[in-house]
Amino acid sequence: MIKIIIVGPKGKMGRLITQIAAEDERFTLVAGVGPKGRDYIGQDLGQVAMIGNELGVEVVDDLARVIESCEVIIDFSSKEMGLETLRLAKKYKKALVCGTTGFSPKEKEAFHQAGEVIPILYAANTSKLVNVMNRLLQLTAAAIGDETDIEIVEMHDRWKKDAPSGTAKEMGELIAHELGEELSELAIYGREGAGERKKGSIGYHSVRMGDTPSSHTVFFGGFGERLEISHHSTDWRGFAKGACDCAVFLANQKKGYYTVADVLKL
Description:
Layout (H helix, E strand, L loop, with lengths): L1 E6 L4 H12 L3 E7 L11 H4 L10 E2 L2 H4 L5 E4 L3 H14 L2 E4 L6 H10 L4 E4 L5 H17 L4 E8 L9 H13 L4 H4 E3 L12 E7 L5 E8 L4 E8 L3 H15 L4 E3 L1 H5 L2
Helix pairs in contact: 1-9, 6-7
């Protein structure tokens, strides 16, 4: 059984990952890690994640205290906690699955570089279906990307902190690379005023409302026709299940930087 630590067990993803991992015979949960000062530190992980029963595992606020007991860390926390988790994972040579978003390009590069030391998998979205969609976007961009207008519309709940979403940015990056460009050179975020659409750009539109879990649509607009590729989630279980599958994959890998595409062999 794979011994795992869950960082951010109180969040919506952390709760689901805890629930799924607790029911999965492939895993042994050894600790949860929350931010310092939270009132649930010291409580049972099952209680904190509200899964309906205790697990006999403590939630602590110091990853270094428990990190030696695990094989893989799963982190869906905050940008600040994610960077600290990365630092400690490298120091103690522990495999890391990170699904936290909001990192700058420089910070993302630190995750790539960590692959020289540990097995690491970074994914803005761990849903299997989203990653199949990503592959479809690559194929579509290679075939018609230079002759269509590309727009990305993403929807999330009102509590989403970053815009566009990490998933939407990753989709744009995949498309841009198929076109031989960098997303930073093509992205246009929202529109107002007058003027024609800039040729070759990738438009971004972020919608935040209610409790919408996650929705992404990429439009490839031609003349007289358009292609839409979409993914809509009804809850977060698919993302949590994908994160657990990534942990199983990573437990058997040598040091290196991996993606969900590697897990799915896309």
